[in-house]
Write a structure and sequence with these properties.
With about 110 residues, this protein is of the alpha+beta class. The protein has two domains: about 10-45; about 60-110, N-terminal domain of TfIIb, CATH 2.20.25. Helix content is about 25%, strand content about 35%. It has one helix at about 10-40; strands at about 60-70, 75-85, 90-95, 100-110. Strands 1-2-3-4 form a four-stranded antiparallel sheet, with no helix packed on it. The longest helix has 27 residues, at about 10-40. About 0% of the residues are buried.
Length: about 110
Amino acid sequence: QNICGYRNHFSARTFIRLNEMVLAKVIVLCLLVTLALAGGYGGYGGGGYGGDGGHDVYAYPKYQFEYGVKDDHTDDHKSQHEIRDGGLVKGEYERAEKGVYQRLNYIYDSHHL
């Protein structure tokens, strides 16, 4: 009997088992909620947010850049500039080293190979 005069029907072992069952139910519930919320964002299931039917979308390739180095102390002189518009790339590379000057002009056209 306990202080109130009632007999204690639950042992410590029963209390631990009940807590383990409650914990197991909470874990299963959390897993189900996680699985339910994880669907619908693309992937192999199709549909969902994003995606365009499985086709990659590329931006039109167009850029221009140039750089140059002119360091008399190290005798490092070089430059390059390049322009790309779609499949056409044009550029020039120059360098001067120990009295030798080199220039390379290049053109690449992927449509007319």
